[in-house]
Amino acid sequence: PFKLSFAQRRIWFLQQFEPGSGAYNDPTALRLKGEVDFGALERTFNEIVRRHHVLQMVFPAVNGQPVMDYHPSVKRGEPVRVEIIRTTLKEQNPDGGDDVDEQVKAYVNRFAGQAFDLSGDFLIRASLMEIGDKHYALVVNIHHIVLDGWSKGIMLQELMDIYKAFSSGKPSPLKELPLQYPDYVAWLHEWMDGKMYAARLDYWTERLKDHAPVLEMPFDRPRPSMPSGKGSLEPFRFSPQEFADLN
Q: Is the pTM of the predicted complex or chain greater than 0.70?
């Protein structure tokens, strides 16, 4: 088993409060138009997971502390399998209305909201929904404990590069990685050991010794007893001068 990064420990800790929540899911939805080579697409996802060991990890607790370890199937030497769910718009919404975009959005939201079991699930899922003739919605859902915003851009680029090669009968054009995420985490803990960690711990112990700061915000309704995770958008505009000041 490997240690977790400090960011991963925070996410793992927060997930324990709501183990059935999808709050830390990180979904991506793409519209695909044209012929799709399903076999090549599925092989592409499995190649990405093979390349990036962090996507093969589970996060069980050992003596109350989280560890990062390979999924049991990987330990048994079995090939990594990301099975893409194939479905159609009609199967998902047999009595759906005329607004296709709303039907697709509803399906994406349902798929993206499915919770992961950090201790046992592969933390990446994919679904390909046929919307119409040569028209698809590809949904990829990954837990945030193994993916961040920067990594998502890398994954999408690799998805395009590998799929292009596989669908043409060629091998992956990408070189093997010299380092994996657990290597970075090992370096991080080594760097933080000793005086570096102690200095930061002493700072926050002193800063928070009297009371933790509380963010007081005005609410137009009572705070619920349980968080719902629901939010909304509030559009606003910056003037050119305000935007320049921010920079």
A: yes
